[in-house]
Amino acid sequence: MLTDEYRYKILKLVEVKPEISQRELADELGISLGKANYCLKALIDVGILKVTNFRNSKNKLAYMYLLTPTGIEEKAKITLRFLKNKMQEYEVLKSEINLLKQEVKSKTLT
Predict the structure, then answer these.
(1) How far is CA 104 from CA 10, 45, 92, in A?
(2) What are the tens digits of pLDDT across the range 27-63?
(3) Domain assignment of residue 50, yes or no
(4) 50: which of 22, 62, 84, 104 lies 20 to 30 Å off by Cα?
(5) What residue numbers bound the domain in which 24 lies?
């Protein structure tokens, strides 16, 4: 399943560098080339991305990934959800760190 985190990261990378290769995308995300292909295909299938062919400087055909108007709207929604999830994770970690600090403090006083 394509998570909001991967959607967000892929859309962000594609927006910055539309001519990014699947291999570069996989490297940036730390995932396999097959998973990168799957993720891009899923975003294309639902109309968030469109793909076009172009010739790169090495005289080979390459692909360019572009956000569709729906993709631009979806990226905004995904960004908000991703931010909300990260903020929740931060709050949980912050609470755990405070508990650990208290535990260490109480152990050093005895």
Answers:
(1) 41, 52, 18
(2) 999 999 999 999 999 999 999 999 988 766 565 668 8
(3) yes
(4) 84
(5) 4-81
